[in-house]
Specification:
globular; 6-stranded mixed sheet; alpha+beta
Length: about 190
Protein backbone atom coordinates (compact mmCIF):
# COMPACT_ATOMS: atom_id res chain seq x y z
CA UNK A 1 0.00 0.00 0.00
CA UNK A 2 1.49 3.34 -0.98
CA UNK A 3 0.69 6.16 1.41
CA UNK A 4 3.62 8.58 1.08
CA UNK A 5 2.92 10.69 4.18
CA UNK A 6 1.17 8.02 6.21
CA UNK A 7 2.60 5.80 8.92
CA UNK A 8 1.59 2.16 8.98
CA UNK A 9 0.12 1.32 12.40
CA UNK A 10 -0.70 -2.38 12.39
CA UNK A 11 0.28 -5.51 10.50
CA UNK A 12 -3.26 -6.87 10.13
CA UNK A 13 -6.74 -6.20 11.51
CA UNK A 14 -10.14 -7.42 10.38
CA UNK A 15 -12.64 -4.75 9.36
CA UNK A 16 -14.51 -5.30 12.67
CA UNK A 17 -11.30 -4.92 14.71
CA UNK A 18 -10.40 -1.75 12.80
CA UNK A 19 -13.84 -0.20 13.40
CA UNK A 20 -13.75 -1.03 17.11
CA UNK A 21 -10.36 0.68 17.47
CA UNK A 22 -11.17 3.58 15.17
CA UNK A 23 -14.35 4.50 17.01
CA UNK A 24 -12.41 5.01 20.25
CA UNK A 25 -9.22 6.47 18.73
CA UNK A 26 -8.14 10.07 19.18
CA UNK A 27 -6.66 10.30 15.67
CA UNK A 28 -8.10 9.01 12.40
CA UNK A 29 -6.59 6.21 10.38
CA UNK A 30 -7.52 4.53 7.10
CA UNK A 31 -7.87 0.82 6.45
CA UNK A 32 -6.98 -1.23 3.38
CA UNK A 33 -7.59 -4.95 3.52
CA UNK A 34 -6.00 -5.43 6.94
CA UNK A 35 -3.47 -2.59 6.93
CA UNK A 36 -4.17 0.40 9.18
CA UNK A 37 -2.46 3.66 8.23
CA UNK A 38 -2.40 6.89 10.28
CA UNK A 39 -3.69 9.99 8.54
CA UNK A 40 -1.41 13.03 8.49
CA UNK A 41 -2.45 16.44 9.78
CA UNK A 42 -3.50 19.15 7.37
CA UNK A 43 -2.45 22.73 6.68
CA UNK A 44 -4.36 25.98 7.10
CA UNK A 45 -4.92 26.15 3.33
CA UNK A 46 -6.23 22.59 3.26
CA UNK A 47 -8.69 23.33 6.05
CA UNK A 48 -9.86 26.58 4.46
CA UNK A 49 -10.60 24.79 1.17
CA UNK A 50 -12.51 22.00 2.92
CA UNK A 51 -14.52 24.56 4.93
CA UNK A 52 -15.31 26.54 1.78
CA UNK A 53 -16.45 23.40 -0.08
CA UNK A 54 -18.70 22.23 2.76
CA UNK A 55 -20.19 25.72 3.23
CA UNK A 56 -20.93 26.25 -0.46
CA UNK A 57 -22.35 22.78 -0.97
CA UNK A 58 -24.49 22.98 2.17
CA UNK A 59 -25.95 26.29 0.99
CA UNK A 60 -26.81 24.91 -2.44
CA UNK A 61 -28.23 21.65 -1.06
CA UNK A 62 -30.38 23.40 1.52
CA UNK A 63 -34.01 22.28 1.29
CA UNK A 64 -33.07 19.19 -0.73
CA UNK A 65 -32.72 15.61 0.51
CA UNK A 66 -29.01 15.56 -0.43
CA UNK A 67 -26.37 15.75 2.31
CA UNK A 68 -22.77 17.02 2.49
CA UNK A 69 -20.20 15.70 4.96
CA UNK A 70 -16.75 16.90 6.02
CA UNK A 71 -13.84 14.51 6.52
CA UNK A 72 -15.11 12.90 9.73
CA UNK A 73 -17.55 10.59 7.93
CA UNK A 74 -15.81 7.41 6.83
CA UNK A 75 -16.55 5.61 3.54
CA UNK A 76 -16.48 1.81 3.10
CA UNK A 77 -15.33 0.46 -0.26
CA UNK A 78 -16.27 -3.24 -0.14
CA UNK A 79 -14.57 -4.33 -3.37
CA UNK A 80 -11.18 -3.20 -2.03
CA UNK A 81 -11.95 -3.79 1.68
CA UNK A 82 -11.05 -0.16 2.35
CA UNK A 83 -12.23 2.43 4.86
CA UNK A 84 -11.24 5.96 3.94
CA UNK A 85 -11.97 9.53 4.99
CA UNK A 86 -12.41 11.78 1.96
CA UNK A 87 -12.04 15.50 2.61
CA UNK A 88 -15.66 16.13 1.56
CA UNK A 89 -18.39 13.77 0.37
CA UNK A 90 -21.92 14.35 -0.89
CA UNK A 91 -24.74 11.85 -1.16
CA UNK A 92 -27.68 12.38 -3.49
CA UNK A 93 -30.89 11.55 -1.64
CA UNK A 94 -30.89 9.29 1.41
CA UNK A 95 -27.56 8.10 2.79
CA UNK A 96 -26.91 4.39 3.12
CA UNK A 97 -24.94 3.83 6.32
CA UNK A 98 -23.06 0.69 7.28
CA UNK A 99 -24.38 0.04 10.79
CA UNK A 100 -26.12 1.44 13.86
CA UNK A 101 -23.22 3.85 14.56
CA UNK A 102 -24.07 5.93 11.44
CA UNK A 103 -20.41 6.85 10.93
CA UNK A 104 -19.67 4.99 7.69
CA UNK A 105 -21.22 6.00 4.36
CA UNK A 106 -21.79 3.41 1.62
CA UNK A 107 -23.25 5.49 -1.23
CA UNK A 108 -21.34 8.73 -1.91
CA UNK A 109 -22.28 10.53 -5.13
CA UNK A 110 -19.41 13.05 -5.14
CA UNK A 111 -16.04 12.83 -3.37
CA UNK A 112 -13.58 15.71 -2.98
CA UNK A 113 -9.92 15.32 -2.08
CA UNK A 114 -7.77 18.39 -1.40
CA UNK A 115 -4.31 17.62 -2.73
CA UNK A 116 -1.43 17.75 -0.27
CA UNK A 117 2.20 17.35 -1.32
CA UNK A 118 2.54 14.11 0.65
CA UNK A 119 -0.66 12.42 -0.56
CA UNK A 120 -1.20 13.85 -4.06
CA UNK A 121 0.09 10.84 -5.98
CA UNK A 122 -2.00 8.45 -3.84
CA UNK A 123 -5.16 10.60 -4.24
CA UNK A 124 -4.64 10.68 -8.03
CA UNK A 125 -3.73 7.02 -8.35
CA UNK A 126 -4.64 4.15 -6.04
CA UNK A 127 -7.22 6.06 -4.01
CA UNK A 128 -9.10 7.10 -7.14
CA UNK A 129 -8.81 3.55 -8.42
CA UNK A 130 -10.45 2.29 -5.20
CA UNK A 131 -13.18 4.94 -5.33
CA UNK A 132 -14.09 3.97 -8.91
CA UNK A 133 -15.47 0.66 -7.62
CA UNK A 134 -18.25 2.47 -5.68
CA UNK A 135 -21.36 2.15 -7.90
CA UNK A 136 -23.00 5.34 -6.59
CA UNK A 137 -19.93 7.55 -7.20
CA UNK A 138 -20.53 9.87 -10.15
CA UNK A 139 -17.88 12.57 -9.66
CA UNK A 140 -14.41 12.66 -8.11
CA UNK A 141 -12.93 16.13 -7.60
CA UNK A 142 -9.29 16.91 -6.85
CA UNK A 143 -8.69 20.41 -5.50
CA UNK A 144 -5.19 21.88 -5.64
CA UNK A 145 -3.84 23.34 -2.44
CA UNK A 146 -0.73 24.99 -3.82
CA UNK A 147 -2.41 26.52 -6.87
CA UNK A 148 -5.95 27.39 -7.96
CA UNK A 149 -6.64 24.18 -9.88
CA UNK A 150 -9.61 21.82 -9.80
CA UNK A 151 -9.65 18.51 -11.66
CA UNK A 152 -13.06 16.90 -11.99
CA UNK A 153 -13.58 13.30 -13.07
CA UNK A 154 -17.15 12.49 -14.16
CA UNK A 155 -18.40 8.93 -14.67
CA UNK A 156 -19.79 8.44 -18.17
CA UNK A 157 -22.64 6.14 -19.19
CA UNK A 158 -20.16 3.51 -20.38
CA UNK A 159 -18.36 3.54 -17.00
CA UNK A 160 -15.34 5.51 -18.20
CA UNK A 161 -14.23 8.71 -16.45
CA UNK A 162 -14.01 12.08 -18.22
CA UNK A 163 -11.52 14.64 -16.87
CA UNK A 164 -12.15 18.38 -16.99
CA UNK A 165 -9.83 20.98 -15.45
CA UNK A 166 -10.41 24.50 -14.21
CA UNK A 167 -7.60 26.87 -13.23
CA UNK A 168 -7.31 30.48 -12.12
CA UNK A 169 -9.62 32.70 -10.13
CA UNK A 170 -12.47 32.92 -12.63
CA UNK A 171 -14.96 30.32 -13.67
CA UNK A 172 -15.96 27.28 -11.70
CA UNK A 173 -17.11 23.69 -11.87
CA UNK A 174 -20.53 22.16 -12.45
CA UNK A 175 -21.41 19.08 -10.43
CA UNK A 176 -24.15 17.67 -12.64
CA UNK A 177 -24.80 14.64 -10.43
CA UNK A 178 -26.00 16.88 -7.58
CA UNK A 179 -27.07 19.96 -9.57
CA UNK A 180 -24.53 22.32 -7.98
CA UNK A 181 -22.04 24.85 -9.31
CA UNK A 182 -18.95 25.94 -7.39
CA UNK A 183 -17.12 29.14 -8.31
CA UNK A 184 -13.34 29.07 -8.06
CA UNK A 185 -13.46 32.27 -5.99
CA UNK A 186 -15.67 30.50 -3.42
CA UNK A 187 -13.56 27.31 -3.32
CA UNK A 188 -10.43 29.39 -2.67
CA UNK A 189 -11.94 32.15 -0.50
CA UNK A 190 -9.25 33.41 1.94
CA UNK A 191 -6.72 30.88 0.61
CA UNK A 192 -3.42 32.65 -0.16
CA UNK A 193 -2.54 32.70 -3.86
CA UNK A 194 0.88 31.19 -4.57
Amino acid sequence: MSHPAHARLETYLTPAEYLARERSAEAKSEYLDGDVVAMPGSSREHNLIVTNLVAELRQQLKGRPDEVYPSDLRIWIPENRKYTYPDVSVVRGAPSLQDRFHDTLLNPTVIFEVLSPGTESYDRGKKFEHYQSIPSLMEYVLVGQLEWRVEQYSRQRDGSWLLSETTGSTGGISLDSIDCRLAMAEIYDKVPVR
